[in-house]
């Protein structure tokens, strides 16, 4: 119980209420002591009236008056005279004197604490102002033992009352906290546990119901997280199913392309100059398709092969990409430009870099064709001390907001109707295999610019 939130709150409530009662206890006991001493002065004054009425007082009556007032002697100051009105033997010398006329709150509290901590009986002198202006002041001597006993009795009653109040308050707060805070938290925990058992089941998503602002905010945040997680799980499940289907298709497609490659070898022997010129490009495309099918099969087995790094001329890869996309553009008014320094060599996997550039240029071409307006696509390359930088620029319509928000997410960041958004996802993954990166530099009505960065320094090995 005491490890729970409500149990600890119960303990803290009792402790804090007791601390508050202790802070109240000290001034209360000090006030009680002052009232006790004033009562002794008043009783002594009343006892002294008998002597003022009759100068000669029977000793037994005098002793009875002092016993009733619980003092040893009484001194009145009146008419500029100090008069010992009632007197009896004092058992010992006076230990302390207290003038109630000049007492402050802090001095009263300090004197009360010292009296409680001093068990020894002492003789005290107490000075105060007589009631009803019966003289200038009154002075009595008294024993400290009855005063301390009265203070202890009063203090015990105060502490007992404080304990009862603290327990009742703590119990009420305990049930209030359980009802208003602990129960809603338990409901949230139960909702989390229920959802964790089957996160793909949308029926298990929590419905915010709490009337407490903080708990409701927690429920709404949990619901938002659960909705996103459920959607992500469903998407991953679809991707897994798609991966299996693509792997099967790639397996058969690889066999078909292998047969096409054999037929292509025979085409290369044709005497037709046009066929001889286009045959190498056809064979390169078929070879890349076969490599892509094999890579897809490996990816379906979660064994995406690492890039085969080598030095190659970037302009050759860029030229192949441009030529393929120029043929795909057909009669559309799209111009292609290659701004690659002659002889620029980069280190990477040429087949994977071709796939990255092909994806970017194809996206740009499709975006321009969709507008029905003429456009331009340019591949620019440069190098510095750290990176090879390749930019793919186009004059298309720019990316829509959804594509910008989910740029590298599969089936989310597509830019054209019927697209899948896989091109950029695949490109980023391939570049990260090189230790590089792909970023959108700018987009707008003037077109898009993507930047490819490939590190020049080799990765450190241990």
Share in helix:
55-70%
Q: Which regions contain 5 or more consecutive residues with pLDDT less than 50?
A: none
Molecular shape:
rod-shaped
Distance between the termini: 53 Å
Order of strands in the sheet with most strands? 2-1-5-4-3
Q: Count the strands?
A: 12
Oligomer: single chain
Rg, nearest Å: 49 Å
Note the main sheet.
5 strands, mixed
Order of helices and strands: HHEEEHEEHHHEHEEHEEHHEE
Helix segment count? 10
Structural class determined from secondary elements: alpha+beta
- The proportion of strand residues reads 15-25%
Overall mean pLDDT stands at 79
Describe the structure.
The protein is built from ten helices and twelve strands. The protein has a five-stranded mixed β-sheet with strand order 2-1-5-4-3. Strands 7-9-10-12-11 form a five-stranded mixed β-sheet, with helices on one face. Strands 6-8 form a two-stranded antiparallel sheet. The longest helix has 55 residues, at 213-267. It is rod-shaped, with a radius of gyration of 49 Å. Among the domains are: 5-171, no CATH class; 306-455, Heat Shock Protein 90 (2-Layer Sandwich). The two termini are 53 Å apart. The chain is of the alpha+beta class and 462 residues long. The model has no long low-confidence stretch (mean pLDDT 79). One of its GO terms (molecular function) is phosphorelay sensor kinase activity. Residues 215-242 form a coiled coil. It is an enzyme of class 2 (transferase).
């Amino acid at each position: 119980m005491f490890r729970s939130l409500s149990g600890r709150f119960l303990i803290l409530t009792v402790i804090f209420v007791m601390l508050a009662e202790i802070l109240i206890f000290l001034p209360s006991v000090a006030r009680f002591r002052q009232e006790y001493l004033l009562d002794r002065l008043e009783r002594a004054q009343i006892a002294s009236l008998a002597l003022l009425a009759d100068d000669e007082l029977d000793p037994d009556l005098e002793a009875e008056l002092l016993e009733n007032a619980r003092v040893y002697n009484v001194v009145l100051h009146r008419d500029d005279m100090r008069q010992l009105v009632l007197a009896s033997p004092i058992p010992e010398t006076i230990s302390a004197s207290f003038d109630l006329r000049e007492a402050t709150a802090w001095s009263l509290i300090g004197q009360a604490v010292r009296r409680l901590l001093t068990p020894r009986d002492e003789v005290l002198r107490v000075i105060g102002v007589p009631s009803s202006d019966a003289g200038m002041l009154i002075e009595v001597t008294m024993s400290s033992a009855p005063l301390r006993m009265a203070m202890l009795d009063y203090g015990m009653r105060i502490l007992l009352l404080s304990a009862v109040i603290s327990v009742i308050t703590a119990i009420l707060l305990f049930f209030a906290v359980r009802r208003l805070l602990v129960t809603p938290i338990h409901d949230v925990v139960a909702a989390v546990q229920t959802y964790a058992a089957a996160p793909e089941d949308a029926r298990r998503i929590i419905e915010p119901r709490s009337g407490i602002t903080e708990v409701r905010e927690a429920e709404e945040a949990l619901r938002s997280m659960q909705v996103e997680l459920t959607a992500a799980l469903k998407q991953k499940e679809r991707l897994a199913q798609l991966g299996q289907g693509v792997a099967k298709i790639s397996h058969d497609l690889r066999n078909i392309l292998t047969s096409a490659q054999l037929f292509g070898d025979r085409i290369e022997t044709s005497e037709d100059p046009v066929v001889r010129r286009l045959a190498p490009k056809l064979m390169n495309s078929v070879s890349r398709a076969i490599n892509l099918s094999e890579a897809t099969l490996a990816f379906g087995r979660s064994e995406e092969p690492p890039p085969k790094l080598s030095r190659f001329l970037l302009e050759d890869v860029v030229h192949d990409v441009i030529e393929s996309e120029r043929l795909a553009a057909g009669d559309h008014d799209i111009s292609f430009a290659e701004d690659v320094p002659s002889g620029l060599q980069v280190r990477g996997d040429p087949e994977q870099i071709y796939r990255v550039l092909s994806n970017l240029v194809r996206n740009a071409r499709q975006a321009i064709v969709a507008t029905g307006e003429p456009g331009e696509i340019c591949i620019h390359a440069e190098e510095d001390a750290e990176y090879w930088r390749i930019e793919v620029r186009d004059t298309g319509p720019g990316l829509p907001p959804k594509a910008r928000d989910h740029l590298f997410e599969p089936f989310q960041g597509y830019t054209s109707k019927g697209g899948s958004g896989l091109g950029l996802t695949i490109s980023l993954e391939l570049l990260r295999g090189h230790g590089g990166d792909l970023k959108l530099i700018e987009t707008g009505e003037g077109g898009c610019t993507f930047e490819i960065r490939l590190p020049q320094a080799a990765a450190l090995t241990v």
